[in-house]
Amino acid sequence: MLLLKSMSQENDQRPFYMSGYGEVSPQFPNMNAPVEFNLTLTNSSNHSYKIKAIEPIFSKEVKALLHDKSIMFLEQKRLNKNSELDFVGQFQMDTSDYSEKGIEKLRPFISNVRIIYDNDKEIILNTLNISR
Fold this sequence. Notes:
This protein has a single domain (2-126), classed as Immunoglobulin-like, CATH 2.60.40.10. Strand 2 and strand 3 (33-43) form a beta hairpin. A four-stranded antiparallel β-sheet has the order 1-2-3-6, with no helix packed on it. The chain is mostly beta strands. 8% of the residues lie in helices and 50% in strands.
């Protein structure tokens, strides 16, 4: 199952923003369902940022299904001025007690993404409620 959303900045005052987000996972119940997500960070400013970590934020319902309750991807990537940076991550969850419709209602699995950058500054970006 593929879930994809493109986003725009629209008068945003944040240093950078998420211009794309997607999730790919099995739509059938599975004890070890792999979920791959990708996001694109866009920097339209004249300043570069050092991305240090990316942490998905889950709803309580989704967090209860995760194999690893704390998921953080440590990065040392530079988001250059007027550029984009793509990131791909993966986690596993147990959807064996859910029907296909039940799994679909949990989407998007990641509701927000916390990004730590520069000298331990942080920003939380919303993956938006993608229409189902």
